Amino acid sequence: QGPDMPLSRLRKAIEESCPHLASSVHIRLKLMAEGELKDMEQFFDDLSDSFTGTEPEVHKTSVVGLFLRHMILAYNKLSFSQVYKLYTALQQYFQNDEKKPGVDESDMELTSTEELRGKMEKEELDVPLREEEISCSGPLSQKQAEYFLSQQASLLKNDETKALTPACLQKELNNLLKFNPDFAEAHYLSYLNSLRVQDVFSSTHSLLHYFDRLILTGAESKSNGDEGYGRSLRYAALNLAALHCRFGHYQQAELALQEAIRIAQESNDHVCLQHCLSWLYILEQKIFDSCVLLEHSVNKSLHFGLPYLASLGIQSLVQQRAFAGKAANKLMDALKDSDLLHWKHSLSELIDISIAQKTAIWRLYGRSTMALQQAQTLLSMNSLEAVNVGVQQNNTESFAVVLCHLAELHAEQGYFAAASEILKHLKERFPPNSQHAQLWMLFDQKIQFERAMNDGRYHIADSLVAGITALNSIEGIYRKAIVLKAQNQMSEAHRLLQKLLIHCQKIKNTEMVIRVLLSIAELYWRSSCHIIALPVLLQALALSREYSLQYLASETVLNLAFSQVRLALNILHMAIEPVLAHGAVLDKGCAMFLVAKCQVASAASYTPQKKIEALESAILNLNEAKSYFAKVDCKEQLRDVLYFQARLFHTLGKTQERNKCAMLFRQLHQELPAHGVPLINAFK
């Protein structure tokens, strides 16, 4: 199926499956290549004799028999000049191998059956003589070219790391097109390859060439009758709209989509119209939220028997309603209905997308345990189908999303080594030049940022902001404000947060709006304006409850409790349980620290005996908070806990324990000065 592999690799492949045959093959090839033309003639005569006799060596109807007969017929049809050309090509093939035995042995190591059956190995691409080998082998046959294109297209979809690199693949495609410029499928693969490197010009050029060649060659007309020409035109316009949408050219995308809709309506093509409707929703949601289009698209897709499109519509509808604050149980019911479609029609790719979607929804709602369960479900699943050349569907976007969430969940619990291992695995599965690499890049930067902030290394955190901004501008601005706040640049941090708040409200990014409001409230505390912080926190609490963001609601309640410390113990029970169950280690520590503060504040009105008991209970809670902070190496919070403990031990008259805490506090305070900001003046 593939083109001719070098002789040394052919021998190695034969040795692995049938060792005693390898030397015979080499001897026969050497005999023909170093002999005369009659030796090759003799070889084909010997092949014909294999079918004769009462007990032939090969049966005519067997797989090998059919192949040999096909080869003999092809040889018999050759003219004398073609026979001579075949013989000289055989000699050249053998001589090329004899000239460079060292290179072949070192560079032709077989690592997997996929690489053996594929067009070429990545190691081979680095060998300078590769171009010579291609030029010697000449143009590929139609079947060889089709096999190569289908293999590479399958790899690009399911396991990009095993496909050729963009530059090497483009070189191979250019070589194919040199011999056959009207090969439409090669132009389409060139389009997919250009998308990998975000090349707008080349991808548009290749896509247009693909549909031009499809129309010119009449391939569509042969299979679809008179409708073939029009079908190519409308799907060309639809693909062009999708391409412009991918690169953010929404105006051009809308024009191309209108053209596709017009042609599809003229041809009464309902399937094409449903695809157009789906893309119309994607374009419209950039301007305003419209569930009507999407619901209509799902109903029509089901009516016309398009389960794949219907399922994608349901997924989009669930995502939109999750951002709109719908209850989690209703969303999960909708996803359950789409899962039935997936299993019924064996849509394995959509099963993966559905599980990844559930993971993200549980993360949005702050249920880390449920998110972890869904992530593990997807990672432990085997694909329903082994796609071409034995590649499993495990390097898709769904797996990238789930692994990123898994890394972040481990980092939140203080398991930084495990998070690093997951990110290392992500880097291997999705190299920096692959299309899903931006996902792990962002999560990697965010985890590094959190570690640097916890450790008080604000200069390192500040250096990471540029990388985060390049991948996600909103996250980048938010992190910059956090760094400025930590560096006591209050006015600058407040200006950035206000600007970000207006932008997030405009684009309806509710989760970020709440996080920004919490950060603004913290700025007010640091400026000793607790009263001004209250309405900001109440606004954040109202939003988090309206949009069912339970974890953010719990965090907001803790912040409210800090603002009203003396009343806090009465409302703390509302938030402490979800935080301890699903929260990050840092948030658990902050919650326990707040409980201790509230206990101390409430103890002021107690009798002497009850006051001592309350303070001792607060010390125990501070120990628990200290263990959480130590787990994530959060030195700033550790310093505050030690300061608070020293004060409590002093009140209880425990001098030895007080001195120990004071000594540890002094060590941390020298390492991490407070920059003139009063200690213990914020919830986090």
General description of the model:
- This protein is mainly α and 684 residues long.
- Helix 27 runs antiparallel to helix 28.
- About 8% of the residues have low confidence.
- Among the domains are: 90 residues, no CATH class; 119 residues.
- It is elongated, with a radius of gyration of 33 Å.
- 78% of the residues lie in helices and 0% in strands.
Question: From the alpha-carbon coordinates, what is the Rg to the nearest angstrom?
Answer: 33 Å
Query: Could you give the distance between the termini?
Result: 63 Å
> Largest sheet, described in full?
none
Mean pLDDT: 81
The percent of residues in helical segments reads over 70%
Poorly predicted regions: 101-137, 220-226, 384-392
Summary, kept brief:
Residues 187-286 form the Anaphase-promoting complex subunit domain. The chain contains 36 helices and no strands. It has helices spanning 7-17, 19-34, 37-49, 63-76, 80-99, 101-107, 113-117, 122-125, 130-137, 142-158, 166-179, 184-196, 200-217, 219-224, 227-246, 250-267, 270-284, 291-303, 307-323, 328-345, 348-364, 368-380, 397-412, 416-429, 437-454, 458-471, 473-486, 490-507, 510-526, 530-546, 550-563, 565-582, 585-602, 608-631, 635-652, 655-671.
